Amino acid sequence: MILDGGLSNALEERGHDLSSDLWTAALLAAAPEEIAAVHRAYFLAGAQVATTASYQASVPGLVRAGLEKVQAERLVRRSVEVAREVRDELSGDGVTRLVAASVGPYGAVLADGSEYRGRYGLAPAALRDFHLPRLELLATAGPDLFAVETIPDADEAAVLVPLLDEVGLPYWLSYSTDGLRTRAGQPLEDAYAVVADSPHAVATGVNCCAPEEVGAALEVAARVTGRPGVAYPNSGEGWDSGTHTWSGHTSYDVSLAPAWVAAGASYVGGCCRVGPRDIAALAATLAG
Predict the structure, then answer these.
(1) What DSSP assignment string belongs to 61-120?
(2) Which of 64, 68, 153, 279 is 20 to 30 A distant from 181 in Cα terms?
(3) Measured between alpha carbons, how far is 278 from 53 in angstroms, rounded to an integer?
(4) pLDDT at 190 (0 to 100)
(5) Other Cβ atoms within 10 Å of 226 Cβ, number
(6) Sequence-ordered alpha helix ranges (H) in 141-241
(7) Secretion signal: which residues (predicted)?
(8) Residue 190 to residues 86, 180, 182, 201, 217: CA-CA distances in angstroms?
(9) 6 CB contacts (<8 Å, ≥6 apart)?
(10) How far is Cα 259 from Cα 268, in angstroms, rounded to an integer?
(11) What are the structural domain ranges in the chain?
């Protein structure tokens, strides 16, 4: 299936400032129609999966931003509802489209760059107490599956996987990687072993990594888990979490995608700095 691309870059291209700690989730209250417009653009470009604006959304984070708990819970659910409404609006054309509720790592909520490092210094029980209520809340909004994405640390995945099986929705889990290691430094063989026996994992792979790292990671994921792969790298540009700026040039090349499919990927798309035009090119390449 063709996944969408980056939500943040598409919203920024529409003129939105996403510099707050809430990132794309800030628009769930301020301008949900803009999030809907981006989901629509990706679907019309050929994406078959919309990934919701919940990556950095959590009740604790929204409460810290000044919302009441009930309002915060409503916005987390709203992230799924917005994507479902756009999916249903386009349903008459016979194309199967899915809504994946984005589940980012704990570090994403901190908004301090630790999502790219892992090793938060939290006990597993504290991570469980953070993740389980969010998973349960997202599930009540009726997504088709979870996109558990940009996970930097196999230790966090080891907490998440039993919770995901407890909630019971299908999910994919994708690590952010540095070569053949997680961002926290664990070998990918060990990281993917965490997911291997999960009955609800429909795919494992990588996202928000450099495009040239995808193929080798997918081969490890397929060997260890025996599951279909998921691959949605970023543009290949460098991200400075301190200044919140990108540098360098894009290396996202849709001509690489057939090799990703050959390595086992059943879900292919893009992450940060990959936009609707890129997804349209990807869809055309894989259709050809």
Answers:
(1) HHHHTT--HHHHHHHHHHHHHHHHHHHHHTGGG----EEEEEE--HHHHHTSSGGGT---
(2) 279
(3) 20
(4) 98
(5) 10
(6) 154-167, 188-193, 214-225
(7) none
(8) 38, 11, 10, 16, 12
(9) 234, 270, 271, 272, 273, 274, 275
(10) 11
(11) 7-287
Lookup: tokens for 211:
């495009």
What are the tokens at 123? 């006990």
- pLDDT (tens digit per residue) in 42-80: 999 999 999 999 998 999 989 988 899 999 999 999 999
Show binding-site residues for Zn(2+). Answer: 208, 271-272
The yes or no reply on domain 7-287 and CATH 3.40.220.10 is no
Amino acid found at 96: T
- Give pTM, 2 decimals: 0.94
Are 99 and 144 within 8 A, CB to CB?
A: yes
Find the length of the chain.
288
Q: With contact defined as beta carbons under 8 Å apart, do 190 and 154 qualify?
A: yes
In tens, the pLDDT along 215-239 reads: 999 999 999 999 999 999 998 666 5
| Inter-CA distances, 173 with 17, 65, 101, 225, Å | 29, 28, 12, 11
Q: Of 185, 279, 283, 241, nearest to 19 (Cα)?
A: 241
Annotated binding-site residues read: 208, 271-272
**Sheet containing 98-103: order of strands:** 49-51, 98-103, 145-151, 171-175, 201-207, 229-232, 265-268
How far apart (Å, rounded) are the C-alpha atoms in residues 19 and 4?
A: 22
Spatial distance between the Cα atoms of 135 and 212, rounded to a whole number of angstroms: 31
